[in-house]
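Why this split exists: single-chain examples teach little about how molecules sit against one another. For that reason, every record in the complexes split bundles all components of an assembly together and asks for one structure covering all of them. Below is a record exactly as it appears in the raw files.
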Amino acid sequence: MPHGFRKVFPYIALLVLVAAMVWAVSFGTLPRADFAFNNGDEIKTVDPAKATGSPEGRVINGLFEGLLRQTPLDQESDENGQVPLQPETNGVAERYTVSDDGLVYTFHIREAAVWSNGDKVTADDFAWSWRRMLHPETGSQYAYQLHYVSGAMQYNLGTLQVGDQVEVELDDRRDPQQLFPRGTVLKGLLVSRDEDNENFTIDIKPLRDGKVDWQAAGSEQSFTKLTAKQPGSGTKCHHVLADFGSTVGITVEDAATLVVRLENRTPYFPDLVAFYPLYPVNRRCVEEHGTPNWTKPGNIVGNGPFVLQFRRIRDRVRMVKNPKYWNADIVQLDVVDAMAVKSQTTSLNMYMNGQLDWTTTVPNPIIPELRKRDDFITAPMLTTYFYRINVELPGLDKVLVRRALNMAVDKQEIVEKVTKAGQLPARSYVPPGLPGFESALCGEFNPEKARKLLVEAGHAGGRGLPKIEILYNTSESHRDIAQVIQQHWKKHLGIDVVLRNLEWATYLDTIHKTDYAVARAGWIGDYADANTFLDMFITDGTNNQTNWSNKKYDGLIEAAKSETDVAARLSLLHQAERILMDEQPIIPIYFYRSINMVHPRIEGFSANIQDVHPLHLLRIRPAER
Amino acid sequence: MLRFFLKRLGWMILTVWIVYTVSFFLMRAVPGGPFASEKKIDDAIKRNIEARYKMDRPLYEQYFSHLWSTVQFDFGPSFRLEDYTVNEVIAQGFPVSASLGIFAMVFALTLGMTAGVVSAVRRNSPYDVSFMMLATIGIAVPNFVLASVAVVIFVFMWPLFPAAGWGQLNQIILPALCLGAPFAGYIARLTRTGMLEVLTSDYIRTAYAKGLSTRQVVMRHAMRGGMLPVVSYLGPATAGILTGSLVLERIFALPGMGSHFIEAALTRDYTLCMGMVLIYTVLLFVMNTLVDLSYSIIDPRVDLEDQA
C-alpha cells in the first residue's frame, strides 16, 4: 500500500460519504395529492382480469369502468347510516335489457364512452377482454365469475369432447411468451385425443369469406401441445380449446351492442358485471406492449375516471383525472394517491397527521376511543366471521356435538369485549341486509341446553371427546376471540381446547387440506345475494373445506339456480341455510362492520354494505379547497 | 491486492450459490404457495396459473432454469407483484434502503465519533458520563421502541416531521435517526476505548513533547489509531443497518428492500424472495470486503495477502 494513498485515504472516505449523502438527498420531492388514502396493501396488479383483492378493486375502479357500475344510490342513508348500493347504468352501458327467461342480457354501450387514448369503447372490447380473461393462459383467479355465461366454463377449463367445435392456436406467435397477439388459429371438429389432453386429431374446416364453414368437408390433421410430456408427431400448437365463437355465449351484435347468454338464470349477473374483474382492457394496448408491460404508466390505456400517473412499489399508486372520461364533469379530484401502508398504527398516525384523508384500517385496541369521533364511519358489511368444523374428526362428526359447541359460545361477549366496533353477533351464516332474504338461525347462547345436547350425544362433561384444536392465522384479534371461545367451551362444556396459530400462507395451506379440527374463517360476499355465501358449502365445493356434505342441501342450491320466481328462489336458499344451520359444519360468530376514517373536508363518502367507495364521487368541501 | 480480490470473488460466488440453493429448496418446502388465497380457487384454474409461472414443471427443472436466468442477472417476474419483474422491484427498493442506510450510517458515525473522542479526552467529566449513559440507552433500546417514542415526540407532541412515508427529505430523518441510534452508541464506546488506549501510548507523549496543541495531537495523531476498532466495527454495523431497516421500513412505511423482503417471504413470492436473499448476501459480502480493504489502508500492520 503506497504511503501517499494511506495519507489521503481518510479524505477519500469522507468524500465518498459526502457523495453518498448528496445522492441520497437527490430524490426529488413529491407534491401532495388532492386526496390521499391508505389502500392497505400493495396491489398485485392493475390488470382487471388478474386482480383479486379489495385494494386492487379501489385502484381498478379508478382506472377502468365496466358496463355497469356499483354506485351508492343518491338517497338518504338508513338507520344504520347505510346507503343502498346497486349495479347501475353509471358505467359504459347506457341501458341494458334482460330477456323474459332471464338468460339473455343485451347491453347498449353509450356513445360518449372512450378510452384514454381516444378510441371508442366498443362491444368488441368487452368480448375480447372476457375472452382474454377466460383463456387458460391468462391464469385469471376470478375467471369463475364468468362461468355463468354459457360455455365459458368449458373454454376456461379446457374441457373437450370428441365432436366438439374447437380452435387450435399454432406455434407461430410473434412472441411465444405472449398470449396476444395470437398465432394462427385454425378451427375444426375434434376427432380424437389422448388421455392427457396433449395430442389431438382434428378435422380442420376451411374458411369461406373469412368465416369458418362448419358444413364443408375438412382435412384431418394431428396436433401436439408444446407443453406435452409425451409429444406426438403432430403439428406443434399452444392450445386446443373449445371454439370461443360458437361455444361461449358472448356475441357482438354491433359496435355498441353486446349480447350475453347465460347458462342459468342468474339474478345477480348485473352485480358481477359491475364487479371489477369484468372490466375491459384495451386490446391495442395489450397487444402492442404485451403483459405485463402494458400496465406500465405511459403504456396503459384505461376507460375510467382516472389515469395512472406513476406507481412506486409498496409506496403509492398515483392517479390523475382522465379528461376523456365520459362522465368527467362529476369528477372533482385531480390527483389521487392510493398508499400501500401495511401497518395499522402507521396508517392511523398518517391520518391523524393529515398525510391521509381516508384510512381503511385502524388498530383494534383503540376502536372504542375512535368510535366517539365524527370522522369514524362504520356500517354493517356483507362479511361473516365464522369457525369451520372438520366434520370428519371423531366427536366433531356428531351434529349434536357441533350444535353444543355453537350454543356454548357467548357471541355477545366477543363483540362487546374483543371486536368492540359495534359488530352484530351472528346466528346465521348469511349476513342481514339482503333484500327479500330471510336468514335461518342456529341455536342461541344457552350453556344449559348445550350441556344437555352433549349428554345426548354421549359425551357428558366432554368425556370421550378428543382435545379440540382451534386454528387461526396469526393476529391479535383472532387470538383474543379464540381465547374467549376456548374459555367458554371449557367452562360450559368441559371440553379441553388448545390454540394453534399459523402464519397466513401456512394457515391457508392447512385449511385447504382440511388438516384442522376447528378453524377461524371469514367470507366476504362477492355480490349482494345469499348465493355467494351458500353455494360454497355444496359437496366438494372448492371453498367448503369442512368435509361436510348434504345431498338435500346440494339439491336446494341447484334448484335455486334455475328457479325463475324471485321469492321462490330466495325461499329455496333459505331452506338451504336452514340445513346448514341445523347441521352446523360452521359456527357463525359475528358479522363484520366496515371501518373507515374519513377527513371531514371530504364529502360524498357514504357507508354501504359492500364497503364500495368510488373515488370519482368524492369531493373536497368548497371551503377547504 | 489483485489476488485478494480474486480469492474473495471466488468465495463470494460459492457462498451465493450455496445460499441460492438452500433458500430455493427451503422456500418450496414451506407450506403454502404464492397463489394461495382465502377464497380457494378451482384446481383447474390453479393449474392454469401455475402453468403460466412454469410451476407445473418438476422441481429440478425449475431450479436449473431459474438458476440459469439468475446467472444472467435476471430474477424473473415477481409472483405476487404481477406487473413487475424482480429486477424492477429491486431497482425501486434499493435506492430507498440505501439512502436510509447512508443517512443512518453518517448519523451514527458523526455522533458516535464526536461523543467518543470528547469522552476520551475529557475522561470522567460530566460530558463523558452523560455521553456514555446515552450510548448505553441507545444500545439497549430496540430501534422499533425508539421509533414509537420518536413518533410520539417529534410527530405529535412537537410536530417537526411527518409520521411516515417516502418522497420528501424530512421523511427520512426520523427513521434514519432511529436506525442509526444503537450504532451511534456502539461507535461512541468503541471510539472512547480506542482513543484512551492510544492517548496513553508513547508516540502521543512524543507529540505532546514536540509542543503540539491538544487539538493537533488528537486530530492528527490519536484519531487515526483510535479509529481502528470503529473501522473493524463498520462491517457488522453495515450488516446491522441493512437488516435493522426491515422493521423500521414497516413502521415508517418506507418502500425499501426491507418491506419487499418481509412481504415476499410472507406471501411466498418465490422469485422476489430469492432476489432479495441474493442481493443481501452480495451486499454483506461486498461491504465486509471493503471494510477489510480500508482496514489494511489505515493500519500498516494488516496485510491483505495474509488475510486472503
